[in-house]
């Protein structure tokens, strides 16, 4: 498979792993946070942590847009979808997330709501065109990667004069979340939680470039390597981070040179800026209210803003108090540290944000890695050799 | 077909007509439909007898019986359709007991307005599949429901078969040290169906692997029947679900090797596009066998000599594990669990 097999070569990965083992200073430890859920998924799915020496550890970050969407916004979407005139279009993995009453879009669909799973924003637009008697709302979520397609679909809807199409905007921003993590007391106070560097998400940087991370690298003295989502990309990024730490450097490096530049996709940025503006604050599930971390439609596009058009109400709702997702999203705790993990909280019955999407840290650990937790116990089952 | 049937079956406009409620009402129209489409496609001596049931001779030995419902969407996909799938699926369920399938029944629930031409295509492919497999459809049922109360057509098939003497395959029979043998590449059927699904259409040179596996099973049994502990066809949920089922029923674990599992490049590419794992994707013409280590080599050789098992491979082995984990060594030298799918297979956002 052109452009995929090249980045899944096991022999090359083992070569890079050997280089990491040779390069890492045995007298020190290295903790790297992969911000993006896509990286978490790849690390778990390919068992990459098994290739790293014991003193090089990965810390899973908050970068799963489904996981960080607050329960209240899910509840608002479900309430909207239950209105008879509404057709709600959504990406697949949002369907399972529960609101404070235990309802999900899947459950609402079974109860009669017109909820349609789509694979792109344009699929939602096609529905609006084909069914002009319906009010079609696209449930827009995601980081900077998925925002340009939402801008594009709005542009197209306006050009076509579609009056029955609108957006429920939940787009959030990566730099704001990284900033919040680095400034949280857990991370900023010495000795509490160690993050020595970041693996930055390549798809986000394909849009915003690598430049927005330069500020963090400098201010917090943490190296950042923007990396692709293939296993070889990730393991190469780890080697690049180890080298920076050894050299005492803290700059932004670009592992994903095949698609990412320093300035990113300027045209996409302009389209986003035309349609969206910053919210003063946006709630992140597990992290709380983060200033300037979310986007909404500009007032001139209010007619296409479902929140405005349908007077949507979002009610803040708390996660289970025993849930440790907040700590897990900041890298302070690991999934298996949470007492709900694997007992009442599994991918089939997710209690907290890290378990709701397959890209969440808890879901990834449950699905791919829980034999390791078992292996640490005295009566352990055998792990793969 | 008798003369009277021939006389009124001329009124069945297969090319342009649609199923209406009268086709399920038990009257003349229903007779036309059954004679003109089903009996014509399935033609055999049992159906020609025209009874509400079929009598057949029961050979000696242990009988197996299986039934399954088919609700696939879309109804037609590369490499097959709901009809051929319904025949192959039930034959395979019987064959997984190492049994020789003997007879099938077929029940149709058809939505009002369904094109007769499509129904004929489906029935003809069932006839071809059952004749090809040597397993006749000897009885059946037809119901028509109002528009909106079904999705085109639903088919249920049941089958009976007989197990050769001395064989007793059971779900709890896997033992540590046993070999896990897979008959070929995974995910072909699921990707072929998804490639034609509404809102998801994409170009993929993948056809369904839908096939009747009893011939392959016969070859395996001849090569080492008593060494076969159990067999399963990994349909919905893919081989991940099948291995987890066996693990929990036999109270063992599995160690499998990612590099040993054949996945066609085009299937792998489609899985990437959709964000799904080929281990969770459905198959309709593949089997997983757990065999005692001393018999694995001969069974594998017999499978590879059969057209439906050319790519057969030992993909892992059974281990003792109270947690019943299915663990996989990845192509990178790391380890991971292969878990059940949680809920419906949903694509990731990014």
What does the model show?
The complex is a heterodimer of chains A (385) and B (350). Chain A folds into 3 domains: 4-65 and 182-254, Rossmann fold (3-Layer(aba) Sandwich); 71-173 and 278-310, Rossmann fold; 324-367, no CATH class. Chain A starts with 9 loop residues before the first helix and ends in a 10-residue tail after the last helix. Chain A is built from 17 helices and 13 strands. The longest helix of chain A is centred in the middle third of the chain and has 17 residues, at 231-247. The radius of gyration of chain A is 21 Å and the shape is globular. Chain A is an alpha/beta fold and 385 residues long. The model of chain A is unreliable at 376-385 (pLDDT under 50). Chain B contains 10 helices and 13 strands. Chain B has helices at 3-9, 28-42, 45-48, 82-95, 116-133, 188-194, 214-224, 238-250, 265-274, 293-304; strands spanning 62-70, 76-77, 80-81, 100-111, 137-145, 153-163, 179-182, 228-232, 253-257, 288-291, 313-319, 326-329, 335-337. In chain B, the strands form 3 sheets. In chain B, strands 8-10-7-11-9-12-13 form a 7-stranded mixed sheet. Chain B has a 4-stranded mixed sheet with strand order 1-6-4-5. A two-stranded antiparallel ribbon of chain B has the order 2-3. In chain B, helix 1 (3-9) packs across helix 2 and helix 2 runs parallel beside helix 5 (116-133). Chain B is globular, with a radius of gyration of 21 Å. Chains A and B meet through helix 1, helix 2 and helix 17 of A and helix 9, strand 12 and strand 13 of B.
């Amino acid at each position: 498979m052109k452009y995929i097999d090249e980045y899944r070569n096991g022999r090359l990965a083992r070569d890079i792993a050997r280089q990491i083992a040779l390069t890492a200073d045995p007298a020190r430890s290295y903790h790297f946070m992969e911000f993006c859920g896509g990286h978490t998924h790849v690390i778990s799915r390919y068992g990459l942590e098994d290739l790293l020496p014991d003193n090089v550890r990965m810390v899973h970050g908050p970068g799963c847009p489904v996981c960080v969407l607050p329960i209240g916004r899910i509840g608002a979407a479900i309430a909207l979808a239950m209105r008879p005139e509404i057709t709600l279009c959504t990406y697949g993995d949002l369907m399972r997330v529960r609101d404070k009453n235990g309802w999900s879009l899947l459950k609402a669909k079974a109860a009669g709501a017109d909820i349609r799973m789509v694979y792109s924003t344009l699929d939602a637009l096609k529905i609006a065109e084909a069914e002009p008697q319906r009010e079609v709302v696209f449930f827009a979520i995601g980081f900077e990667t998925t925002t340009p397609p939402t801008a594009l679909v709005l542009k197209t809807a306006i050009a076509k004069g579609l009056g029955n199409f609108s957006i429920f905007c939940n787009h959030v921003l990566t730099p704001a979340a990284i900033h919040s993590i680095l400034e949280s007391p857990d991370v900023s106070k010495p000795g509490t939680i160690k993050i020595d560097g970041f693996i930055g998400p390549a798809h986000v940087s394909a849009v915003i470039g690598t430049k927005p991370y330069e500020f963090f690298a400098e201010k917090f003295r943490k190296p950042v390597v923007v990396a692709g989502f293939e296993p070889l990309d990730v393991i190469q990024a780890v080697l690049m981070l180890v080298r920076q730490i050894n050299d005492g450097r803290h700059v932004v490096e670009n592992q994903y040179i095949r698609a990412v530049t320093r300035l990113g996709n300027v045209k996409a940025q302009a389209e986003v800026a035309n349609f969206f503006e910053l919210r003063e604050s946006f709630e992140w599930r597990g992290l709380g209210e983060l200033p300037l971390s979310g986007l909404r439609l500009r007032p001139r596009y209010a007619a296409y803003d479902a929140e405005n058009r349908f007077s949507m109400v979002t009610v803040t709702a708390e996660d289970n108090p025993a849930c440790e997702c907040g700590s897990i999203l900041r890298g302070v705790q690991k999934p298996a540290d949470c007492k709900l993990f694997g007992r009442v909280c599994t991918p089939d019955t997710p209690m907290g944000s890290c378990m709701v999407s397959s890209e969440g840290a808890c879901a990834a650990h449950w699905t791919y890695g829980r034999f390791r937790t078992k292996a640490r116990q005295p009566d352990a089952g055998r792990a793969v050799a | 077909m008798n003369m009277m049937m021939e006389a009124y079956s001329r009124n069945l406009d297969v090319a342009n007509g649609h199923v209406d409620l009268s086709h399920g009402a038990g009257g003349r129209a229903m007779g036309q439909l059954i004679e003109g489409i089903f009996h014509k496609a399935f033609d055999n001596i049992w159906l020609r007898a025209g009874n509400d049931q079929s009598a057949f001779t029961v050979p000696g030995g242990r009988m197996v019986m299986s039934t399954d419902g088919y609700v696939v969407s879309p109804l037609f996909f590369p490499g097959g359709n709901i009809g051929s799938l319904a025949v192959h699926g039930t034959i395979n369920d019987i064959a997984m007991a190492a049994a020789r399938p003997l007879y099938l029944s077929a029940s149709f629930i058809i939505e009002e307005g369904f094109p007769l031409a499509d129904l004929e295509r489906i029935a003809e492919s069932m006839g071809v599949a059952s004749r090809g497999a040597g397993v006749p459809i000897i009885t059946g049922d037809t119901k028509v429901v109002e528009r909106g109360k079904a999705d085109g057509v639903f088919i249920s098939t049941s089958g009976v078969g007989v197990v050769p003497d001395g064989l007793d395959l059971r779900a709890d029979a896997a033992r540590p040290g046993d070999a896990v043998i897979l008959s070929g590449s995974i995910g072909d059927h699921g990707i072929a169906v998804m490639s034609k699904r509404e809102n998801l259409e994409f170009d993929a040179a993948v056809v369904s692997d839908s096939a009747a596996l009893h011939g392959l099973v016969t070859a395996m049994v001849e090569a080492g029947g008593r060494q076969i502990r159990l067999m399963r066809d990994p349909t919905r949920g893919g081989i991940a679900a099948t291995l987890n089922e066996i693990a929990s029923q036999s109270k063992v674990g599995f160690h499998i090797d990612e590099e040993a599992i054949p996945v066609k490049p085009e299937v792998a590419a489609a899985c990437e596009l959709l964000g799904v794992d080929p281990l969770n994707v459905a198959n309709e013409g593949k089997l997983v066998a757990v065999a005692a280590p001393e018999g694995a080599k001969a069974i594998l050789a017999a499978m590879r000599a059969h057209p439906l098992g050319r790519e057969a491979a030992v993909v892992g082995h059974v281990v003792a594990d109270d947690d019943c984990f299915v663990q996989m060594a990845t192509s990178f030298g790391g380890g991971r669990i292969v878990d059940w799918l949680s809920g419906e297979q949903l694509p990731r956002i990014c």
